[in-house]
Structure formats: structure tokens, C-alpha cells
Amino acid sequence: MRREHVLPAPADTHALGRHLADLVAPGDLVVLVGPLGAGKTALTQGIGAGLGVGEPVTSPTFVIARVHRGGRVPLVHVDAYRLGGVADVDDLDLDATTAESVTVVEWGEGLVEQLADEHLEIRLDRRDDDVRTALLVPHGLGWEQRLAP
User: Fold this and answer.
1) Structural domain includes residue 69
2) Which of 24, 56, 100, 149 has the fewest Cβ atoms surrounding its Cβ within 10 A?
């Protein structure tokens, strides 16, 4: 799989998420990095759709974390934007669901990496022409192998 993706439309971001859903397994951690409007929630919606989650996947900005069941693997969607630090992440008890779920964390860089031995970091950006980009950065041999062409 390519590590760099150009995503001209929200549907492309969603499609990348659906493709990533084919690669994830219980226990996986995906950390989404990028500014507001870069496509973090759209990517997570694609992952949810690819997993077969039947309910809408919306930004958990105010509830911080949502668990979506009903797909082939539960999806835990976290928005760490309002969290003050690692202690706040610990208070969420995400490690209690990590082993059986796919955990996707928006704004989680520097806060959640300790939840798993390996993780996939996705660096999203929005260019001046409103086109989004995604750079997949594997952390660990398992992700290196899954993303290998």
C-alpha cells in the first residue's frame, strides 16, 4: 500500500479509511494527526464503514470517546483535542477496550502511543487548494509489513 495519498474529495478520504479497515485487527491503534478540517473524522467514518459499523460515526469532540459495535471489530473513536495530557487519557480507561477493538484517536499524538506496542500514525493535511493529503507512518514491524507494497 502506498504511504502517501492525495485525497481530492471527501469521498477519497472515506475510501482510504475503507481500505485501511481491511488491514486493521483487534488491538490496533491508529493515531490521526492534522489540523482542523484535514479529514480526521472522514477517515474514521471510512474505517467504520469498512468494518461494517451500522451507526453513524460522528466526531466525539464533546463526549471524547464513542464505541461503535456491530462491525467485524468494535471501533473506539476518540477525540483527544480537549485532553490535557496522558493522565486524562488514563482516566478514559482506553486500555480496557484496546485488546478487542480498533482504537482510532484524533489529536492523539504524544498522548496515546503507550496504549499499544505498535501503532499506525496517519498525518493528514489540507492544502491551500482544499485537497487533503495523508501520510501513513507505521510504528512497529507489524504495520511495516501490512503497509508493504
Assistant:
1) yes
2) 149
- Residue 64 sits in a domain whose CATH number is 3.40.50.300
Cα 133 from chain centre: 15
Round to whole Å and give the CA distance between 60 and 127.
Answer: 25
The set of residues, in sequence order, having a beta carbon less than 8 Å from that of 91 and lying 6+ positions away, is none
Specify if 139 maps to a domain. Answer: no
Please indicate, yes or no, if residue 93 is contained in any of the structural domains. Answer: yes
pTM beyond 0.70: yes
DSSP assignment of 66-134 equals EEE-SSSS-EEEEE-TT--SHHHHHHTTGGGTGGGSEEEEET-TTTSGGGSSSEEEEEEEE-TTS-EEE
Total count of domains within the chain: 1
Q: What is the DSSP string of 15-35?
A: HHHHHHHTT--TT-EEEEE--
Lowest-confidence pick of 91-95, 122-126, 136-140: 91-95
Domain span at 44: 4-131
Phi, psi dihedral angles at 6 (to 5 degrees): -100, 130
Task: Over range 111-125, report the average pLDDT.
Answer: 90
